[in-house]
Amino acid sequence: MKTIVGGIEQIGYGAELLRNGEVVAFPTETVYGLGADAFNARAVAKIFEAKGRPQDNPLIVHIADPADIGKVAASVPETAVALMEVFSPGPLTLILPKREDLPETTTGGLRTVGIRIPNHPIARALIRAAGCPVAAPSANVSGRISPTEARHVLEDMDGRIPLILDGGCSDIGIESTVLDLSKEVPVVLRPGAITAEMLSVYLGKVVDFKGKVLIAEAPGMKYRHYAPTCACQAARSPEVAAREARRRMEEGARVVIIGSTPFVRACGDLPVIDLGNTPADCMRNVFSAMRNAEKTADLLLLEDFSDRREFYSLQNRLSKSTGGVVLS
Ligand code: TXA
Ligand code: MG
Fold first, then answer.
1. Cα of 57 to ligand 1 centre, how many Å?
2. Which residues does the record give as L-threonine binding sites (predicted)?
3. For the CA of 107, the nearest atom of ligand 1
């Protein structure tokens, strides 16, 4: 199959492909998604095939307008309506009971469904033009680093899908916050740019931050994620990163250190990629940095952010890339 990369002029073609049961990659503000008609089980099966994704890992269903939530969810609690009003369109996915007619292929066999309204003009125009809710995981091969640019999608999906819509770099750079509202107590299944603190205002005392943040494992979390094609470890400090980099380089390894501006500046004249100063900068740049670095490196050394609360969502991803290995 030939894979075309197009811009906004291809939205109409993309919508036609979706209506015809094909798979289309499209930009969102978090990461690129690999979409199919959420109600067409055979189309959705093509997503799993293109990604090599385990069948029991549920997909997020994307809609363009809050009014469409009832097309996917069997019931919509008041909390969900309130959260949608504040945070949608945006990087928040809500887990709700699914409608009977939504195929279980889409929800990985679960009775619930994740729903999100992306805040990217191309994503919303595509969903509107297709006229159906669009199931879409991140557009990477399962287990690989999530794509934040069209060229990342092409690296993983060339020849496997007919169309990639190019909408530039994803603004946020890590995936949406996943909040499960199907249980009595709301649970953050995956942290993201919308933090538990931001949600807590609307969830009242349900989410308690004084030691009782409710975090559970999303089904997808048991698999290795965000894995570069080369080795990848975290370093507690610039000194540790620099020492390890020099040691490995003496053995002939090619090493790249990736971290925030102060961290990489403190690494001296070693090969580094600077992610920027703020948590937002670092989230936006991290996946692209890893994909660039893995092309030439044998080892990536990532800054460990685990002591810094503002970097919580970023650290959540990095600890999966490293498999939890931290040098100190
Ligand atoms: O930002 C995002 O959410 C991106 C863009 C494309 O929208 N999508 C994305 O999809 O990250 P994916 O499939 O890579 O991650 C979805 C996560 C998985 O960990 C999955 O297990 C969880 O959400 N999830 C989806 N539906 C669920 C459900 N019904 N119950 C529990 N977890 C669910
Ligand atoms: Mg993913």
1. 8
2. 30, 62, 116, 136, 176
3. 29
CATH architecture of 4-209: Alpha-Beta Complex (3.90)
What's residue 82's pLDDT?
A: 85
Question: Which residues does 27 contact at the CB level (< 8 Å), separation at least 6?
Answer: 120, 122, 123, 150, 165, 166, 167, 168, 170
Residue 193 Cβ < 6 Å to ligand 1: no
Pocket test for ligand 1, best of 175, 183, 224, 320 (most atoms within 8 A of CB): 175
What does residue 33 show for φ and ψ, rounded to 5 degrees? -110, 155
The pLDDT score that the predictor gives to residue 203 is 73
Taking 90 as the threshold, does the pLDDT of residue 204 lie above it? no
How many Å apart are CA 151 and CA 182, to the nearest integer? 36
Residue nearest to atom 17 of ligand 1 (CA): 220
Whole-angstrom Cα distance, residue 294 to residue 298?
7
Q: Which CATH superfamily is domain 231-327 in?
A: Threonylcarbamoyl-AMP synthase, C-terminal domain (3.40.50.11030)
In the chain, domain spans: 4-209, 231-327
Predicted confidence (pLDDT) per residue in 152-174, tens digit: 999 999 999 999 999 999 999 99
Mean pLDDT along residues 187-199: 85
